[in-house]
Design goal:
Layout (H helix, E strand, L loop, with lengths): L3 E6 L1 H12 L18 E7 L2 E10 L9 E9 L8 H15 L4 E7 L3 H6 L3 E9 L2 E9 L1
Parallel strand pairs: 4-5
Antiparallel strand pairs: 1-2, 2-3, 3-4, 5-7, 6-7
Length: 144
């Protein structure tokens, strides 16, 4: 039987999937400001003992939302593990962790190709589409 586990990991443990999935052939760093902050939470989903999905949750406020906020950054699932529910597991775990900290909102800059995934996980679009080096994005948020 395969065991799926979501747990806290280090910033360094996120770097391989960030580089491989989110930054491949893109001239942007795979390390983020805030990676090493005490308030930042890095999570990983392990299938058996293989890290298959990651996300980093950073204390960061935007003016559109009123209340305590965290930003989801660098969410990635390995190519062979996509579509198996690992991202949902990661977000459910993160939502519970953040609620326990008294956080009101989780927000992210979602790639256009990931909008449906975030909508299925109770995120809503706020504002207009914007484009950066990675491509089209929308700001999205979820009430906790």
């Amino acid at each position: 039987m395969i065991m799926v586990l979501v747990k806290k990991i280090t910033a360094e443990e996120t770097y391989f999937l960030r580089q491989e999935i989110l930054r491949k052939n893109i001239d942007l760093p795979h390390t983020f400001d805030g990676d090493l902050d005490e308030t930042t939470i890095h999570l990983g989903v392990f299938d058996d003992e293989t890290l298959v999905c990651i996300g980093s949750f950073m204390k960061n406020d935007i003016e559109e939302l009123k209340g305590k906020q965290y930003q989801l950054r660098g969410m990635a699932t390995s190519s062979e593990a996509r579509g198996k529910g690992y991202g949902k597991e990661l977000l459910n775990f993160a939502t519970n962790e953040l609620r326990n900290l008294g956080i009101n909102f989780l927000w992210c800059n979602a790639r256009e190709v990931a909008i449906k995934f975030y909508e299925k996980n109770q995120f809503k679009i706020m504002g207009d589409k914007f484009v950066n080096k990675v491509g089209p994005h929308y700001k999205m948020y979820k009430s906790l």
